[in-house]
């Protein structure tokens, strides 16, 4: 702040102007890196806390994971719409749907379902008997949830939708960048050549997306599989 004030009051034709401006740029860059490191450490601390609450059984302590929101919520049963107490942990790439454990020591929650953000949809529902409800639909499961207030519902919907939008934007940017990288890579192999000789297997670290559909790989729904005929890496065995 002092350097900014000094630079603002310093005449533009001063001999010290360029040195002061460069110093301010260096300090600003250092401060930015420092703040980024602090945020990463705070996020890692949160991940470790959640890891302990889940009984150290869920593999969530990863620098790429970011805890967005957590909180108690009610889940409406599919058959009789009775409300059951649940707890949600929303990350930048998944939603953990948990059941509370009534224990004085050890883990506090058991993960019932891990719902990926990829393909997730949020729908606001209207139930006269159970107000403040909304629906989370994912590839793994669909949940009808109820909050304690309209404000709480809006906050959850906003957090979930923002996370979905950010995830889709990252994936789109990633796909566009990778598509350019592999535009020149031969995808199709002549069927006449298949089986004549052993193919060269494409190494896992050579590709980050399916060589057929060009969707990015992940550890849950799009795992790497090698084609024994052509050696390419795809999402389907």
From TrEMBL:
One of its GO terms (cellular component) is cytoplasm. It is found in: Cytoplasm. GO terms for molecular function: guanyl-nucleotide exchange factor activity; zinc ion binding. It holds the Pfam family FYVE. The keyword Metal-binding applies. Residues 204-237 form the FYVE-type domain. Keywords: Cytoplasm, Guanine-nucleotide releasing factor, Metal-binding, Zinc, Zinc-finger. Its main location: cytoplasm. InterPro entries: DBL_dom_sf (IPR035899), FDG4_N_PH (IPR037742), FYVE_RhoGEF_PH (IPR051092), PH-like_dom_sf (IPR011993), PH_domain (IPR001849), Znf_C2H2_type (IPR013087), Znf_FYVE (IPR000306), Znf_FYVE-rel (IPR017455). Residues 66-165 form the PH domain. One of its GO terms (biological process) is cytoskeleton organization. PROSITE patterns: PH_DOMAIN (PS50003), ZF_FYVE (PS50178), ZINC_FINGER_C2H2_1 (PS00028). This is FYVE, RhoGEF and PH domain-containing protein 4.
